Structures are given as structure tokens and as C-alpha cells.
Write a sequence for this structure.
């Protein structure tokens, strides 16, 4: 059988289905659901204690919380265990000794994990939206839909980009969680939330740029992080995040060729 | 001119930090069944991993089907099946799903993958367990699933790393039959094991590794001949062993004898068959109560060979 | 012929007088120290403490009255409504940011991976419990080793700085920092104990090194901003900060040092934070004993 005659598509599809099944079956979905429940908990507390406008609260608290913390944690919870289990236990040996290029199963793993992450990302934006929308009056449903839909779109883009980072880390290192902490939380959430030139290198700045355009979040929760005075536009944000994701896919591909499977 | 080897290694070496996995291995493997023998830690698994591109050599190279093994040399994998020594780990998958997943990675459509999975499950006698989850299977069944996944796509080269571990005698026999049938169709099978008689049951061609080095390569009977030239030890218990020992010495059947602390008689011999005939006669007279021939365990053969090459 | 199992021969050699958890403790310490990352973290922490004392020494050589200068500078930057700056037990609370908060998580992750999950991977639980060791003794050995490492990395550097501070400071300075050794030891001991038991309990539930670490990361990092958000949303109810384990450690340490009265209304109630830490200890212990008792019956 020649190298070119092996179809890659069934391999990607099969690996994708495997990853999807693994993440959503049994207790596999529990960690992501727990993360998705936190914005809902915040919304419940807001309804009980706060007298502020719920629409504003959603923009001030739920949107930043989802962008700064839900995306990184969900990406980590979705991507790292499956890669860790495959590599650390030597199960990857069954996968990479098949007549497909190594990037094909990896792409399948990414695709399946990302698709499995989507429902919980949607939940983390939708449930608090529903709770807050029904607790207050005066805001048109269309505005709510736009804000919640906008957040879902930002989370999808963010989940894709951060998933790519986690894919690389999971393939590249045994200590992927420590690196993910540094990159996703340190470089992402912290650097991206502090004032200074360094924040322009952080993906969070561009996610907040998208939030600014798509969710119309004008004031942001500033208890921990400084709001961006000049957020980037949609095109710039999508370009940076897209190119960043591609770079991490390329790095993952290089890493999977170099890493020994023991 | 003989056919080119299926596997060709030159100076193949791999270190794990300061630990030596394989060192300077020159090896050619031709079609047929080849037993890869060695005690634990001898480098069998490392060699298998090097041949499948799972790890990269520190020095030297390996070629399979005339092509240099590299991590992404997937044209080789289309003609090769590999059953790792490690456990399966796809714990929550059903046997048929696990195999269909791997079949899809070989390019099969979803339906075709399931059909192929059933086919190999049938070959290893697990078709009735197709929907059993891996984590609900016994060790022996898991081993058979591992062999089954190596059989997907009917490969020309089968690399089996300790495939019989944990199998019951019936499964062992059927797996060995399967290996034998496979080879009869002109295929190459490399069967790694640390149990001599397992390998002996299917092939006489062996490669012996020790501490990551090639210790011996060739026909098992040649190696056995070497072993047979060395004294073997037979330990017997019975009545009036002293007078019997004197007779044996006179008949020149033993090269040495010792009484053990338990009052048994240990006999060293270079002529095992005549000695056994003599002991059989003793047994018939009721004088002999017990007999142990020092087992031909692989360790013993290795000790011997290591002594030869030292 | 009847089948007969091999006879059991009782061990007649001399038995060690050490308690049964002692081998678990020593082997855990050995394996912990065998980890490159544990050694790195320990050296980094010790080197930081040494660096601070060397800095104090040079400061002392160049500016003998540096303490007064530091207090004056502190007063200049402090808002008017705050008390005067001083170098006392409260200053040592600030050292948590150097020697505890940045170290706890990485050390726990390294430990979780190399020790606890290594036992899971190697199926060592069964080996342990086929010996005459009880689950409680196993937990004790493991926990003491973990607590030992934690104290070495967090407490020792702070005590080193304290000793140097007392030795080079004026006589009356001792009274200001007298509560530090005992208070810090108590706080760090309880903190380490809570973390040691929690990481083992999480491992016993997840049965996976990677999931243990992810859970730990979530508990450490996610809870801090959530506490902050809930504080704001609830009309500044500071008790929501008790959701964050780092916050609990801070307030509990302040209590042990006897400076909890200095904490403003941005901190959770000291009783609540202590309750959270003790609840973690209690619940983790419960989970561990229940899980280990089950596992010890395997085989």
C-alpha cells in the first residue's frame, strides 16, 4: 500500500468520535459541567444579593469570568487528560503504528475534544443568561440574545485557540498541566489582565476585543484585572487568534514526531 | 542470492539516559517465525519499539521492508502489525469499537472497520465478546484483543511483544496455532518472549538478546547442542542412593555427584538420555521416589551462553 | 493426588521495632527527594531565604539604621487612615506571598504526580496492603512525608529569616516577632496537613494523576476570582473570600501569629477560614479511609 493511498479522513473521523465519546460519556463530562456551573452559581448569588441591573451584571461579571477562567480551565480539562492518558500509559503506541500520518489522529483528537467542549461552553454562557434575564425586567430579549450569543461565539473562538495550545502541551510534555498553568493562566489570564505593553502578546486581550464587539461589554469587572482601554477590533482579534492556533497546531505536529512513546 | 531481509538493523543503539536499552545491534530477519528471546530487561521491547518508530535510535538504524524506520514512515505500518507488551488502556471502549477505531486509522470506512474488527475477533476466538468492554475482560482476553488489533489488514510482518502473558493454556495453544498458520502463508512473525518453550513450540529460529546486546542468533537446535555439551543436573530421591551412586560412577554416566542436605542425590551428567534410561529402570524397581531435571529455563541457557561468550 | 497449597512459614527473624508507617514515610521522602522538580523547588525556596538574609546583612553594613528608614518609608506610602508601618509579626504574614503561595501549588502538583499517582500506576496499593500495614498507617506515613516536605520548603526559609532578623535586630524587636516561630509553625503545619490529605483524597477519588492535578489547579486558582466576584456581588460580604484556599491560609496564619485583628473588612472571618481548613482535613480523612479500606480488600 503506498503512502498516498491511505485515506486520512476516516482516521480523523474515527479519532474524533473516540475523543467525543470519551469526554461526554459516563463521568467524563462531569469536570466540564462543574466548570460550566460556576458562572451559574455567580448568577444565582447575583440574583439573591445584588440589586444592580442583571443585564449589566452579566456583562460585568459573567463575560469576564467565562473568558478569563472558564475557557482556560475547560480547555485544560478537555484536552490534557485524553492526551496524558494516551501518552503516559503507552496507549498511543496503538494509534501511531497505523498507516496514517501522525497528525491525522491528533487532528481527530482535537476535533472530537473541541466538539465535546462546545455544549458545556454554551451552557456556561446560557444558564447564567437565563437566570439573570428572568430575574430582571426592561431589557429586550433581542439584546439578551445578542449578548449571550456573542459570549457563546467568543467562548467558541477561545476554546478553539486554547484547545490548540493544550493540544501542543499535551503532546510535547509530561508536565503539561504545569506548562498549561503558565501559558493559559499566567500568560493568558494574568498578563492579559494587567496593564502594560506585555498584554498585547496575550490571547486574552484579543478575546476581550471580541467580547467588546460581539457582547457590547463596555464596563468590565475590574476587581482583579484592569480593563483594556483600547480593545482590538474583530478582524485583528480573529487574525491573531487564528494565526496563534495555527502556530500551536504546527508545534503539536512537530512535537508528535519528536516525542518518544514509551 | 537470498531474498532481502524483512528487518535489517545495523549498529542499532538506544539509551534511556544512562540506561542501555539496545547497544550496537546488527540483525537481519527473514520471512518465517523468529523468536526474540531474552530475560526481562534484555532489550526486546526496546527493539520492538525501535522497529515500529515509537522511539528513535540513539545511534545506528533499522530498516523494515527496505525502508528506514522513522516516526512518520506510515507506508511501513500499512504492512506491519504490532502488539505492544503494555496493556491496552482503552479501558472504557468495547472490544469491537477499539478494533474498529484502529481499523479506521488504517483507512477503513466506519462499516468496513466494524466488519474487519469482527473478522479479527473471530480469528482470536472472541467474536462472542465483541461488545464486552476492555475493562471487563480478563488479562488473557485482553491479550487476545491485542493480538487481534495486530492482525487487522492482514499484515506481512507481525511483531508480537510477549503475546502469551496471562493467557490460559487453551488460548496459548490457539494463539500459537494462529502464529503458525500466519507464517505458513509466507508472512514474517517476530515473537518476543522470555519463555523458551513458548517460542520453541512455533519456531526453531531464534534471536537471543542479553543486556541489550545480541547474544546468539540462529537455529534453536544449534543453541541446544551447545547447551547439551554442558553438564546437566538431575536430582533424585529414593532408597539406597549411595550404592546406586557408586554404580553410576562406574558406568561413566555422571561427571559428578553430591548429596543434598535433604538426603537427595544430585547428579551432573553430559549424557542425559542414557542416564534417564538408567533411572527409569531404577524407578520400575521401586527404588526411586522422585526425580527433578534442572529446568531448561531461559535463564539457564543464558547463563551458559553468557559464560561461553565471556 | 490431592492438591496441597504450599505451607506458610512464619517469619522467625528479628522484627524491626519501628512503627509500621515508618517505612512508608521514609520511602516517600526518598522518592520525593528523587524528583528533580521537588529538589528544584526546595533549592529555590532556600536560596530565596538566603538571598534575603544576605541582603539584610549588606543593608546593615551600609545603613545601620535601615529598620527605622524602612518604617519611615512605609509610613510615607501608607494611606493616612492606616496605622503606622512597623516590622513585626504582621510583616511575616507578607512572606507568605514569597514562600507559601507560589510554592504550594507546584509542589502539590509534583507530589501528586510523582508520589501518589506513581503508586496508582504501579498498582502499589495492593502491595502495601498485602503487608501488615493498615490504611491508617499508610495515610499517616504518606501525610507526614508530604507535610515534612512542605514545612521544609515553606516554614524553614521563614524561620531562617526570623532567626537572622532577631539576631541582628535591637533587643526590644524580639517581643514584636516572638509569636512568629510557634504561630507560623502551627499555621504551616495545619496548611500542609490539609493539603496533604486533600491531594490524597482527590487521588483516591479520581484514581488518576492527571485528574488529581487538574482538580487541584481548579481548587487553587478558580476559587480566588470566584470569591472576589461573590464578594462584590453580595455587597462586600468578605466571608465569600473563604471559598479561596489561599485566602483561608492567609487569614488562618494571621490568626496563629496573633495579628488577625489587623486584618480589615476585606478578609473573611478567622473562625470561618479555620473552619474551612479543618473541614478539608476532616472530609479528606473520611474519604481516604473509606476508599483505602475498600482498596485494601482487593486481592
Amino acid at each position: 500500500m503506498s503512502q498516498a493511498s491511505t485515506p486520512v479522513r476516516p482516521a480523523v473521523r474515527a479519532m474524533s468520535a473516540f475523543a467525543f465519546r470519551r469526554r461526554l460519556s459516563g463521568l467524563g463530562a462531569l469536570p466540564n459541567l462543574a466548570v460550566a456551573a460556576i458562572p451559574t452559581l455567580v448568577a444565582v448569588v447575583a440574583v439573591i444579593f445584588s440589586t444592580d441591573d442583571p443585564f449589566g451584571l452579566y456583562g460585568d461579571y459573567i463575560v469576564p469570568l467565562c473568558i478569563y477562567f472558564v475557557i482556560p480551565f475547560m480547555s485544560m480539562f478537555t484536552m490534557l487528560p485524553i492526551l496524558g492518558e494516551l501518552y503516559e500509559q503507552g496507549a498511543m503506541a496503538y494509534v501511531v503504528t497505523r498507516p496514517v500520518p501522525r497528525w491525522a489522529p491528533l487532528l481527530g483528537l482535537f476535533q472530537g475534544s473541541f466538539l465535546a467542549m462546545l455544549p458545556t461552553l454554551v451552557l456556561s454562557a446560557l444558564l447564567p443568561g437565563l437566570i439573570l434575564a428572568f430575574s430582571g425586567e426592561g431589557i429586550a430579549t433581542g439584546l439578551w440574545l445578542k449578548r449571550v450569543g456573542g459570549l457563546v461565539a467568543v467562548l467558541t473562538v477561545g476554546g478553539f485557540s486554547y484547545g490548540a495550545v493544550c493540544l501542543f502541551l499535551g503532546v510535547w510534555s509530561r508536565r503539561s498541566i504545569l506548562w498549561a498553568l503558565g501559558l493559559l493562566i499566567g500568560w493568558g489570564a494574568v498578563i492579559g489582565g494587567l496593564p502594560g505593553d506585555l498584554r498585547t502578546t496575550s490571547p486574552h486581550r484579543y478575546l476581550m476585543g471580541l467580547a467588546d464587539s460581539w457582547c457590547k461589554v463596555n464596563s468590565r469587572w475590574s476587581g482583579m484585572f484592569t480593563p483594556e482601554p483600547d480593545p482590538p477590533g474583530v478582524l485583528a482579534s480573529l487574525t491573531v487568534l487564528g494565526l496563534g492556533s495555527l502556530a500551536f497546531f504546527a508545534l503539536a505536529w512537530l512535537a508528535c514526531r519528536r516525542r518518544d512513546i514509551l | 542470492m537470498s531474498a532481502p531481509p524483512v528487518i535489517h538493523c545495523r549498529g542499532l543503539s538506544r539509551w534511556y539516559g544512562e540506561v542501555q536499552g539496545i547497544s550496537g545491534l546488527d540483525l537481519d530477519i527473514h520471512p518465517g517465525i523468529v523468536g526474540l528471546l531474552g530475560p526481562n530487561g534484555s532489550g526486546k521491547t526496546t527493539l520492538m519499539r525501535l522497529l515500529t518508530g515509537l522511539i528513535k535510535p540513539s545511534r545506528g538504524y533499522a530498516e523494515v521492508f527496505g525502508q528506514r524506520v522513522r516516526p512518520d514512515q506510515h507506508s511501513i505500518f500499512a504492512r506491519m502489525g504490532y502488539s505492544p507488551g503494555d496493556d491496552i488502556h482503552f479501558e472504557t471502549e468495547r472490544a469491537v469499537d477499539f478494533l474498529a477505531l484502529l481499523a479506521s486509522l488504517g483507512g477503513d470506512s466506519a462499516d468496513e472497520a466494524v466488519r474487519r474488527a469482527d473478522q479479527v475477533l473471530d480469528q482470536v476466538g472472541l467474536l462472542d465478546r465483541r461488545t464486552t468492554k476492555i475493562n471487563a475482560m480478563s488479562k488473557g482476553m485482553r491479550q487476545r484483543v491485542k493480538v487481534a488489533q495486530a492482525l487487522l489488514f492482514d499484515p506481512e510482518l507481525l511483531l508480537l511483544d510477549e503475546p502469551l502473558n496471562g493467557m490460559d493454556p487453551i488460548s496459548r495453544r490457539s494463539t500459537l496455532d494462529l502464529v503458525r498458520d500466519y507464517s505458513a502463508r509466507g508472512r514474517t512473525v517476530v515473537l518476543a518472549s522470555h519463555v523458551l518453550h513458548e517460542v520453541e513450540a512455533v519456531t526453531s529460529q531464534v534471536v537471543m538478546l542479553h543486556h541489550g546486546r545480541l547474544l546468539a542468533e540462529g537455529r534453536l537446535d544449534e543453541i541446544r547442542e551447545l547447551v547439551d555439551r554442558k553438564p546437566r543436573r538431575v536430582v533424585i530421591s529414593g532408597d539406597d542412593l549411595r550404592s546406586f551412586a557408586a554404580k553410576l560412577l562406574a558406568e561413566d554416566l555422571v561427571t559428578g555427584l553430591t548429596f543434598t542436605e535433604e538426603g537427595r542425590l544430585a547428579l551432573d551428567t553430559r549424557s542425559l538420555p542414557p542416564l534417564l534410561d538408567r533411572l527409569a529402570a531404577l524407578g520400575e524397581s521401586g527404588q526411586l521416589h522422585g526425580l527433578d531435571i534442572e529446568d531448561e529455563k531461559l535463564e539457564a541457557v543464558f547463563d551458559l551462553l553468557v559464560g561461553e561468550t565471556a | 493426588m490431592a492438591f496441597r497449597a504450599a505451607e506458610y512459614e512464619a517469619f522467625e527473624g528479628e522484627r524491626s521495632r519501628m512503627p509500621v508507617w515508618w517505612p512508608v514515610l521514609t520511602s516517600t521522602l526518598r522518592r520525593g527527594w528523587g524528583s528533580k522538580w521537588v529538589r528544584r523547588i526546595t533549592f529555590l525556596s532556600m536560596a530565596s531565604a538566603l538571598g534575603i538574609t544576605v541582603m539584610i546583612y549588606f543593608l546593615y553594613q551600609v545603613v545601620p539604621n535601615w529598620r527605622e528608614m524602612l518604617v519611615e518609608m512605609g509610613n510615607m506610602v501608607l494611606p493616612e487612615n492606616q496605622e503606622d508601618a512597623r516590622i513585626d509579626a504582621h510583616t511575616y504574614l507578607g512572606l507568605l506571598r514569597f514562600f507559601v503561595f507560589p510554592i504550594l501549588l507546584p509542589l502539590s502538583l509534583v507530589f501528586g504526580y510523582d508520589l501518589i499517582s506513581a503508586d496508582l500506576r504501579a498498582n502499589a496499593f495492593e502491595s502495601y496492603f498485602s503487608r501488615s500495614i493498615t490504611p491508617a498507617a499508610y495515610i499517616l506515613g504518606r501525610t507526614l512525608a508530604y507535610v515534612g516536605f512542605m514545612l521544609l520548603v515553606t516554614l524553614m526559609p521563614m524561620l531562617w529569616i526570623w532567626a537572622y532578623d532577631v539576631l541582628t535586630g535591637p533587643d526590644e524587636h524580639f517581643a514584636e516577632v516572638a509569636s512568629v516561630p510557634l504561630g507560623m509553625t502551627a499555621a504551616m503545619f495545619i496548611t500542609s496537613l490539609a493539603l496533604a490529605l486533600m491531594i490524597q483524597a482527590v487521588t483516591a477519588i479520581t484514581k488518576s494523576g492527571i485528574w488529581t492535578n487538574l482538580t487541584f489547579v481548579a481548587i487553587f486558582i478558580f476559587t480566588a476570582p470566584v470569591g472576589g466576584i461573590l464578594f462584590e456581588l453580595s455587597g462586600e460580604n468578605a466571608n465569600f473570600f473563604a471559598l479561596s484556599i489561599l485566602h483561608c491560609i492567609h487569614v488562618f496564619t494571621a490568626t496563629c501569629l496573633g495579628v488577625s485583628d489587623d486584618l480589615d473588612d476585606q478578609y473573611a472571618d478567622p473562625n470561618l477560614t479555620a473552619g474551612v481548613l479543618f473541614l478539608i482535613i476532616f472530609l479528606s480523612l473520611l474519604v481516604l479511609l473509606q476508599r483505602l479500606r475498600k482498596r485494601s480488600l482487593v486481592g
